[in-house]
Amino acid sequence: MLGYGFSRLTSPMDDVPRVTGIGGIFFKAKDPAALKTWYSTNLGMRMVQSGSNFQWYQGADSTKKGFTLWAPFRETTKYFLPSEKQFMINYRVVKLDALLLKLKAAGIFPADTVESASYGRFVHLMDPEGNKIELWEPNDVEYAKLGTIVSK
């Protein structure tokens, strides 16, 4: 059993394009600023401009930071369209371009084009039930720099 656990940490899966975890949970709120204040005051969540970041260390390399973002959006946001849902999950991925080729071969096409920012690359898909999802190939080093901006 123990050998299996160690073999998973050094798995050849590191080269396979895939989801590696939850990058963020995004949801609609009537008053995102007030909701962030409530969560901060009552649950101790430290806020940055976009929400609250949960920092953790990547299992296979405990020297690498990773982040999961909790982010309320205005309930009038168009960012979730064409989904009618009140939430969107952001998935951390590796090898985004290869993953998109794999999805295309399966007849699954992105809802938009890949966008790049200093902290990673993003693209959106619709799942079979009409949920918009975001794929994020992170640059955690640059993303960590954004965590110093605290919102009020």
Automatic annotation (TrEMBL):
Which SUPFAM superfamilies did the record assign? Glyoxalase/Bleomycin resistance protein/Dihydroxybiphenyl dioxygenase
Q: Name one Pfam family in it.
A: Glyoxalase_6
Species of the source = Hufsiella ginkgonis
- Protein name per the record: VOC family protein
Residues annotated as domain VOC: 21-138
